[in-house]
Amino acid sequence: MMKTSFILAIMLIAIVIAGCGSSSKSSSLPSPTTPSIAPANLTAYPGDQQVTLAWDPSPGAIAYYLYFYPENSSIRGNRQLLATTTSTTYTQFSITDGVPYDYFVTASNGAGASLPSEIIAIPSFMTSTTFTAGISLTWSAVTSPTAPSYYTLYYVQGQDTPVSGTSVTASASTYTFSSLTPGAYTFTVTAEIPNLPPDIRVGAPVTATIP
Q1: Dist CA 119 CA 44 (whole Å)
Q2: Best label site of 18, 51, 65, 141, fewest CB within 10 Å?
Q3: Which residues contact 86 (CB under 8 A, 6 or more apart)?
């Protein structure tokens, strides 16, 4: 009788262990078998010797690979990996103002890289027009992926980069200063964009002179 009870106990333990193993296997998540979809709405926000790039998240992506083509190459053979990141924004520093660059991004979910996003170039932004006692500034409106809450214009008299200085805010992509004294002025425009770092610079500083 004791031998039979011992055998039954061993069988019961084996059944419990087998059940736990099958439960553990059934609760594990399957690995992805197809790559992520390409990231959408890649957008560039150029600034003074820098550019901030942002894109929409790809479902299931665990990493993004950001590439660029120096000098707006028409032959797409010299792409360079700029960064690997888990974020959907990236800022590249130490670029040359006025030199065109092209960018694209891919997403990975562990099953391989997605197709590339659309290729975008750094757009040109701010221009200025002078008149008696005034300067009008116009820049390309930021519309994607989210319109800015407002723009901030910084300016100083002289040809120094206005890291701070006098500032005004604007809701549109143009602003006119109508009561400035004659001389040279340097202007910088920044944009406040939801879900992006503060004070995204819109283009390189612009210098204009009132005669």
Answers
A1: 11
A2: 18
A3: 62, 63, 64
* Residues of the chain falling short of pLDDT 70: 1-33, 48, 71-77, 97-98, 123-127, 140, 142-147, 159-165, 197-198, 202-204
The string over 24-54, giving b where at least 16 C-beta atoms fall within 10 Å of a residue's C-beta and e elsewhere, is eeeeeeeeeeebbebbeebbbbbbeebbbbb
Report the largest interatomic distance among the alpha carbons of the chain, rounded to a whole angstrom: 113
How far is the first Cα of the chain from the last one, in angstroms, to the nearest whole number?
113
The DSSP string of 126-185 is -EEEEETTEEEEE-PPP-SSS--SEEEEEEEESSS--SSSEEEEESSSEEEE-SPPSEEE
Give the contacts of 115 (CB within 8 A, at least 6 positions apart): 35, 37, 38, 106
Sheet containing 89-93: give its strands across.
43-47, 50-54, 89-93
Among 204, 188, 196, residue whose Cα is nearest residue 43: 196
CA atoms within 13 A on the CB side of 67: 19
Domains present along the chain, CATH in parentheses: 43-121 (2.60.40.10), 127-210 (2.60.40.10)
**What is residue 160's predicted lDDT score, i.e. its pLDDT?**
65
Q: pLDDT for 2-16, tens place per residue?
A: 445 544 444 444 444
